[in-house]
Write a structure and sequence with these properties.
This protein is an alpha+beta fold. The protein has two domains: about 35 residues; about 25 residues, no CATH class. The chain is about 15% helix and about 25% strand. The protein has a three-stranded antiparallel beta sheet with strand order 2-1-3, with no helix packed on it. β1 and β2 form a beta hairpin. The longest helix is centred in the C-terminal third of the chain and has 11 residues. About 5% of the residues are buried.
């Protein structure tokens, strides 16, 4: 994982790739030598579902939950087809 560290003394910042178990072993600042502090950062989340047009449902499906909602509205079940819900 990539972690961000900042020096409280001189304000320098640096990113380092580390194992999760080593995340709290803060490096020394390259500029002043002080031990840096780990910063809390937002993680990047990649969606695992890309929207697509479903020919059978005749609708754009935006997520797994949206697909279930569209199927329920149309009276369709994944296993059996129309009219089996």
């Amino acid at each position: 994982m990539i972690y961000l560290y900042a020096c409280e003394r001189c304000g320098a910042r640096k990113e380092e790739f580390r194992k999760v178990i080593e995340r709290n072993n803060c490096p020394n600042c390259d500029q002043c030598g002080t031990v840096m502090q780990k910063q809390i950062t937002a993680c990047g989340v990649q969606p695992d579902f890309q929207p697509y047009y479903d020919d059978n449902l005749q609708s754009v499906v935006k997520s797994r939950r949206h697909r279930q909602t569209v199927m329920r509205e149309q009276g369709v079940s994944e296993k059996f087809g129309k009219g089996w819900i």
